[in-house]
Amino acid sequence: MTFLIATLIILLLILSWKYILRLEPAGVFALIWVASVPMILLLQEYIVLNLEGVLFIVIGVLTFLLGTIFCDYYYHPEKDKSTVLTFKKGWALPLVCVLLVCAMVNPLYSIILHGFSLQALLDMREVLEMNKGISEDRYAGAEYSNVLNQFFLIFCYAAPLFGGFCYRLVGKLTKTICVLTLIPGMFIALTQSMKMGMITGFILWFTGYLICSYSYGLSLKIKFRSLLFTILGLAGFFGILFISMVFRTGEVSEKTILDIGQKFFTYALGQFHCFDMWYTTHEPMPYALGTKTFMGISNVLGLEERTQGVYTEFHQIGQNGYYGISNIFTIFRSLIEDFGEAGALLFMFLLGVLTCMALKNLLSCRMIFFSQVCVSAAYAYLMWSFATSFFAYTSYLAMFFLAYFLFRMLQKETAPC
Description:
Elements: H1 2-21, H2 25-42, H3 52-74, E1 84-87, H4 89-113, H5 124-139, H6 147-166, H7 172-180, H8 183-192, H9 195-215, H10 224-249, H11 254-281, H12 295-301, E2 315-316, E3 325-326, H13 330-363, H14 368-383, H15 394-410, E4 411-414
Antiparallel strand pairs: 1-4, 2-3
Helix pairs in contact: 1-2, 1-3, 2-3, 2-14, 3-13, 4-6, 4-7, 4-8, 5-10, 6-7, 6-9, 6-15, 8-9, 8-10, 9-10, 9-14, 10-11, 12-15, 13-14, 14-15
């Protein structure tokens, strides 16, 4: 089984190479799994695996890539020469500033709703107590939110998306503000131990950066300076993620840091064990027909109830001295629950086709704003694939509706001179 998976990974890398170099959705998706699957194969001594679920993941990623290749071969829309996309540079700074201010409302208001004073932010001991208290409340199912707080949560995700989108088209001052749109997610991680909010912020910032590049034909070539900043950014990202996990315990000690290091490893690779075990032991059930993947909608409609973390089953993933607990099952569990194994693969193939079509439409100046939103949603779903469906959260879905109007506000379609 290991040899078969390794062979498919090599095939996946070969087929996706040109998409990786262009950072297209299929390339980014393939790169995530090409990088992580070999790591899990090398660590089988410490992580319990049957490998059947891992094989399904690789086949699922390969199926998405085949859908992209199919569309790439058959779909060639002509460029709409009657339309030129123009960026309203004067709107960028005020819009990004408004988004950033609105994004900060949510984490500050959440602190107050949990009974803490904003003055607690000035005392490290109180910050640790706040982290631990809010984290315990969240996992206990205590509800400390309201409509106003949920509304401003949307801006926590819209801000980095448009920070990344505007970054390449503005001056130095606005570039700085664009980078600062990552602060709300980092602030939430450091004060409330909500790691996924920060991860989502970075994913959406990168998504906005790519959407801008494709929309305006900007180069995506890797340069030494940009590579250096990327490495420093990743180091800072993982550093803040690690610190937020330390703060969550409510104390800082050598033992805590060692324990968090183990948990860090679990969060990085625990999804393989969880999905693998679920895949080999789950019993067939009536298909959910999309309500699991699109739980953000089905939860609002009352068709499904979304719990904290989406899934409540926790797995002890380690062996031979390694210990770790995780409840992350990737996008593939919800797809199988929705459509079965064959249906999940068909969904991935069609998603590959539709994502490629949306990107080609964007490059051809067809349905520009709609295509920008569709490609943004595809990038977010694919880069979040290691965890669960991006569309399981109502605030994420609402953000894309807001994004459509913001794309229209920031840009205009004009006739060529």
